[in-house]
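step=predict obj=tRNA pseudouridine synthase B n=304
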Amino acid sequence: MEGILPLWKPKGMTSHDCVFKLRKILHMKRIGHTGTLDPEVDGVLPICLGRATKVAEYITDAGKTYEGEVTIGFSTTTEDASGEVVNQKEVTQTITRAMVEDVLKTLTGPIKQTPPMYSAVKVNGKRLYEYARQGIEVERPTREVTIYSLNLLDDWEELVGETISFRFIVDCSKGTYIRTLAVMIGEMLGYPAHMSKLTRTRSATMTKKDCLTIEEVAEKQQSGTIEKDLRPLEDALCDLPKFQINDTLAMKVRNGMVLELPFELKGVEGPIVMESEEGEALAIYVHHPTKIGKIKPSKILKVL
């Protein structure tokens, strides 16, 4: 069995928990997820099976869509609802839709974020959450991410209360911390804030309507129909440039040979998918680091 299984991850489970369960259900070991979702977050989690594990990173690197909720009035250690309160400030003014929309516009486009201490980012070979659990604060690397769109959900014009909450939808690049985005929204409104709810509704090309729950996977595996719900590994490569080759060149590609950069791909800087005349992805090639005008295999997807 091979392909991409669009899974709807439930709240209360880690991404690793999902992989562990699926290995038992599907009776296979070669399974990998495509980017960690926090336990309290539900949503789309593409799972790569068999040969598709080779392309997991391209799904991880693709854009995502989230629907979340910001609560303004207090912040937490984890930047979400699971943490301890660290700063409180009563909301004493009326928060209008126009005020929030102005903030969201400011945060749209390339922005810089500092990962939260409770995150899987590594510093000096150790994950930040390991430092956080020991009460150690370390300097964290600031990264640039892109917010493609950021809009409010629900119809409201004014919010009043000691704490207030509102929902939003965001399309963003890889590496974006929505928890941190929620904190930034609060700060720009003048208050401590945290992310109180979050659901991932899209990962790469896969959305909620494509997904199966773990229970549905078990049922379809038992009935022998699960493979009908798998997406081809080519779906993970939809954003990469493609070059179609004939059978003679395909033999060389499958053998991992270094090739001349095709004229049609002059100026392409990133990875290139070499595909058969039938559209099957055979390998991913990259520019040769020392031989100008040559490309070499990064991943062989289809061996002889």
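step=describe
Helices lie at 15-26, 56-60, 97-106, 128-133, 178-189, 214-223, 247-254.
step=end
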